[in-house]
Every structure is written in C-alpha cells, then in structure tokens.
Design goal:
Helices cover 0% and strands 13% of the residues. By secondary structure, the protein is mostly beta strands. It has a two-stranded antiparallel ribbon. It is globular and about 45 Å long. 0% of the residues are buried.
C-alpha cells in the first residue's frame, strides 16, 4: 500500500484583539515564519 501525504497550503490566520492594536495572535497550527504577509498587509517580524 502506497500512502502519500501532501502538504496542504493553508492561508495565514490571525486573531486581532482590537482593530487599532498592532498586536495579533497567529492562529495557524505550528505558527508561521517571519515575513509572512496577511491579506490585510500585516507582515510578521
């Protein structure tokens, strides 16, 4: 039996506590690498 697991690209997810806040919580399992850019323009450092 040949079982192959393919990585599924998942969109970057974050939780923002307040729209004027510059802090967000990354909600992707395992985190995200620095440089990830969200659709809103938020870029991880």
């Amino acid at each position: 039996m040949d079982i192959r697991l393919e990585a599924v690209a998942r969109p970057p997810l974050h939780i923002t506590m307040h729209e004027r806040d510059n802090v967000a919580i990354v909600a992707n399992d395992g985190g995200l690498p620095a440089g990830t850019v969200f659709p809103s323009g938020l870029t991880l450092r």
